[in-house]
Every structure is written in C-alpha cells, then in structure tokens.
C-alpha cells in the first residue's frame, strides 16, 4: 500500500511536510432565531485548526458556545457563515447521503453516555457496525477487539443499568470507535463522573490517541480535563475564542480574564480567605505587598525564597503555594507577602531568576 501524501512513514516524526488539520473551522459564525424574535449569536468568526493526531480541548463557561461548536463539526448544525472542514470535506455543503458517510469518520462521546438501555454492552458497541452494513462475523470480531481495548471483555453481556458510570462511558468510547473514525468528539464526556473515574477515562482517551493516532476534540468546562489530557487549548467566551495555544503556555501565562477565572480555583493560586478579605489595591505605610510567583519548568523547584533572604535579607511570608503538573510539565505557584518598601527589589530579583510575578495587592 502507498503511504499517504506527505508521509515517509507511519510516525509523526517521519512526516515530510505538514499535514492538513483534520478539522478546520474558518471564520465560522452561527446565529439561531431567538424565541422572542431576537436572534441569538452562539458563535462569532471562529477560526480553529485541529492537527491530525492531536488532542485539542475547548474550555468555556455555560452558554459560551461549546456544544454549538461540536454540533457544527459533526454536521448536526450548519454554520450561518464560514466553513467547517472535516477530513477535507466541507461538512455543511455535503448532501445528506454523503454527510452520513462522512459521519463514520467522526466518533462522538457524550456526558450522559447515550447508550440504549435495551441492549447489552456488546450490542451497543455493535450498533454503528450494523447500521454501516458489516456482516455478522466482522461485527463479532470487531466488538471483541473494542471490548478488550476499553477493558470490558468480562462485561460484554451486561446491560447499561448493570454498569457503573465509568464502565458506561467505556462502552460509549468503544461504540464511538467502532467504525474506525479519524476524529473523536467528546462533549463533556467526564462531567457526570467522579474525579477518580474521570482520571481513568482520560487515561483511556490518552492511550487511544497515542496507540491509534486518533485525533480528539473535546469540550469541557473543567480545567482538570484540559490540563490532564489536552496539548492545545482554546478558551471560548461569548461565542468567540479569546485565547488559544499550547496548554502549558496558556495556563501558566493566561492573558484573558476568563482563562484566569478558570485558573482561580486551582490549588496554590487561590488566596486564603483571611488574606483575600483584607486585600487592598493601594499600599499603606507599613503594609505588605502580596505577590504571586509562577515557577515554570526547570525553575519549578528552585529554593528562591531562601536566596532572597540570603542575598538581599528580604524575608517573605508564604501565604499559599503548590507545585503541580500541567500537560506533564511542572509548574509551581507561590503567594508571598513582602514588606511594601522591598517590592521593587524583590520583583527585580525574582524576574532576574526567570520567574513570573504579579502583585495582587496589599495587606495592612
Ligand atoms: N437551538 C438553539 N436555539 C436558540 N439558541 C440556541 C440554540 N442552541 C444554542 N443556543 C444559544 O447559543 C448560546 C451557546 O449555547 P451552547 O449550548 O453552544 O453553549 P455551551 O457552551 O455548550 O453551554 P453549556 O455548557 O451550558 O451546554 C447560548 O446562548 C444558547 O442559549
């Protein structure tokens, strides 16, 4: 078999030339007719490219336009203007029969799993294969393969009501993969699951991405989902993408207020209530400046406060802090108080050591 154009081998590292993104939105807007005659614009001029083999997360608050975006990608909605290209095809321009065919290369998983309660796990997974007209022997073999992939071979004859939430989502994932799609769309797929089960489902998705090279586009309102699995993130607010890029970059140096608000609850970034309630924007005589310090990559574990005390005799009070991992890279946050008179010396020192700083305010 010939290799696809642009490749000399199977691995991404062997690519000769950049490959077309598998999903591309070009200046996509979507307006719905509102109930009271006032049109509702759900998406405005969205440009988004999902590279083949990547995991791209779209995060946004309720009503930001996430579901509309995903419904445009699988052709359930048509854009009011702009283009949605999936695997080279302009989805909105496809006639019904061609759209049905194109949908086989798009798998989808849902928050509430959407399994048929009258069918067993195996029968749910078999459904898209039956619809696509596979013969019985092919279906049996493929279903077994998929059950093994998601770790549910021993649950093949169980009905959804006999499965846990995590197991139901595994069935949902197996069903979505049945017709060997090129893209998997995930619509809040872990929002109904507890943190531990969420983690195991995200691990499964990461493994599928790695082993099968499947591209994943996921929408979520949960930071934890993005930071655990995505490599690229787009932040959506009011139907616009307000920030977009590498997950580590966006989350360690957020530019937009919405991105900051998603990060505000993260451990180490939140101020203790007793500091928050006393924080003022202006310094007063004898007050302490509250500084947030961000440690990225190799600086994440630097003993910088010890050096501050040793080299400049400035003593900083630690107010909160953590060292965590974002997209597999260490990132530390420390909130400290330093005497107001030492602020500029402290900031110079910290910045010289490659650390990010932000003065949050002052406490008397
Ligand atoms: N079919 C529709 N008719 C009218 N308005 C709609 C329709 N679908 C979505 N909207 C509106 O478009 C905006 C974006 O909705 P959307 O469901 O895409 O947001 P979301 O980010 O997925 O929110 P949530 O997380 O709450 O599901 C909202 O103001 C919503 O009311």
TrEMBL record:
UniProt GO cellular component terms: plasma membrane
Record's keyword terms, sorted: Amino-acid transport, ATP-binding, Cell membrane, Membrane, Nucleotide-binding, Translocase, Transport
Family: Belongs to the ABC transporter superfamily.
Pfam families tied to this protein: ABC_tran, NIL
SUPFAM superfamilies xrefs: ACT-like, P-loop containing nucleoside triphosphate hydrolases
Gene Ontology biological-process annotations: amino acid transport
Protein name: Cell division ATP-binding protein FtsE
Species: Microvirga lupini
Protein purpose: Part of the ABC transporter FtsEX involved in cellular division. Important for assembly or stability of the septal ring.
Molecular functions (GO terms): ATP binding; ATP hydrolysis activity
Alphabetized InterPro entries for the sequence: AAA+_ATPase, ABC_transporter-like_ATP-bd, ABC_transporter-like_CS, ACT-like_dom_sf, MetN_ABC, MetN_ABC_transporter-like, NIL_domain, P-loop_NTPase
Domain ABC transporter, residue spans: 23-263
């Amino acid at each position: 078999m010939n290799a696809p154009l642009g490749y000399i081998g199977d691995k991404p590292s062997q690519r000769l030339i950049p490959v077309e993104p598998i999903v591309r939105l070009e200046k996509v807007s979507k307006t719905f007719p509102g109930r009271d005659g006032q049109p509702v614009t759900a998406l405005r001029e969205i440009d988004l490219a999902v590279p083949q083999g990547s995991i791209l997360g779209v995060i946004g608050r309720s009503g930001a336009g996430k579901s509309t975006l995903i419904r445009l990608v699988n052709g359930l909605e048509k854009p009011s203007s702009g283009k949605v290209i999936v695997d080279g095809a302009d989805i909105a321009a496809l006639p019904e029969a061609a759209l049905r065919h194109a949908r086989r290369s798009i798998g989808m998983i849902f928050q509430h799993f959407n399994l048929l309660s009258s069918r067993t796990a195996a029968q749910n997974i078999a459904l898209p294969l039956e619809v696509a007209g596979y013969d019985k022997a092919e279906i049996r073999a493929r279903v077994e393969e998929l059950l093994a992939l998601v770790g549910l071979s021993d649950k093949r004859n169980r009905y959804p009501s006999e499965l846990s939430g995590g197991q139901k989502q595994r069935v949902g994932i197996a069903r979505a993969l049945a017709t060997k799609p090129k893209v998997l769309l995930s619509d809040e797929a872990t929002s109904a699951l507890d943190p531990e089960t969420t983690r195991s489902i995200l691990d499964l998705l990461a493994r599928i991405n790695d082993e099968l090279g499947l591209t994943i586009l996921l929408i979520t309102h949960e930071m934890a989902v993005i930071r655990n699995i995505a490599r690229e993130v787009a932040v959506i607010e009011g139907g616009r993408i307000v920030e977009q890029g590498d997950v580590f970059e966006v989350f360690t140096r957020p530019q937009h207020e919405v991105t900051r608000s998603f990060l505000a609850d993260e451990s180490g970034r939140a101020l203790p209530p007793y500091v928050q309630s006393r924080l003022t924007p202006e310094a007063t005589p004898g007050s302490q400046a509250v500084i947030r310090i961000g440690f990225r990559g190799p600086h994440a574990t630097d003993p910088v406060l010890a050096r501050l005390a040793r080299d400049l005799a400035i003593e900083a009070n630690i107010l909160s802090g953590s060292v965590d991992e974002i997209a597999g890279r260490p990132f530390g946050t420390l909130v400290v108080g330093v005497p107001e008179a030492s602020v500029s010396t402290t900031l110079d020192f910290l910045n010289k050591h490659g650390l990010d700083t932000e003065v949050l305010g002052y406490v008397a």
